[in-house]
Amino acid sequence: NQQVGYSFGYLMGRSNAESIQDLDLDAFVQGLREASKGQAASLSDEDMARVLTQYKRQAEAKQLLEVKQLADKNAKIGAAFLAENAKKADVKTTASGLQYMVLQQGQGKSPKANSKVKVHYEGRLIDQTVFDSSIARQQPAEFQVSQVIQGWTEGLQLMKEGAKYRFFIPAKLGYGQIGSGDVIEPNSTLIFDVELIEVLPK
């Protein structure tokens, strides 16, 4: 049935689009046809293993180069943003490079690295894309201060209960050259609005 054959081919192509986009599709179909009919392969097993290994290495090298180029671009954009941001009168910069703005002073206790805290927060990229928000979930987050990214660990200890700060976190104090998920790219500078609700009892 032609439609069934087309459907199989289309679904296979869609689910493997990234893997096969650089391939010679005529040769791909030839290999599929010969294998499905039980015919002898046009290449030996050794040759197939060799060319596939070479192809995989080339694909990995290309991917690494693309990631490096993206990381370099984000590093330059982030550095320019932080340099300009540091000029603002209400922005303070710590020795580590963390920048912060006090949105609301607090009156309670300050946490230490081994403290557990309850916070509300919203995380954004410098283009204002929101990638995480406990506020949107309407559910405060609880965690130990030392078990989050370095920029948070340092920044939270500057706060008192009831305070609201805006942190501008360079990549080295965030997710670094690896990034996180699909949204936080390598070397991304991050912005977090954080409300320290409570330093929880041990």
UniProtKB/TrEMBL annotation:
Pfam families: FKBP_C, FKBP_N
UniProt entry keywords in alphabetical sequence: Isomerase, Rotamase, Signal
PROSITE patterns named in the record: FKBP_PPIASE (PS50059)
Reactions that this protein is recorded to catalyse: [protein]-peptidylproline (omega=180) = [protein]-peptidylproline (omega=0)
Highest taxon, organism lineage: Eukaryota
Ranges of residues in domain PPIase FKBP-type: 114-200
GO molecular function, one term: peptidyl-prolyl cis-trans isomerase activity
Annotated protein name in UniProt: peptidylprolyl isomerase
GO annotation terms (biological process): protein folding
EC class: isomerase
Family as reported in the entry's similarity comment: Belongs to the FKBP-type PPIase family.
Species in which this protein is naturally found: Cajanus cajan
InterPro entries: PPIase_dom_sf, PPIase_FKBP_dom, PPIase_FKBP_N, PPIase_FKBP_N_sf
EC number from the UniProt entry: 5.2.1.8
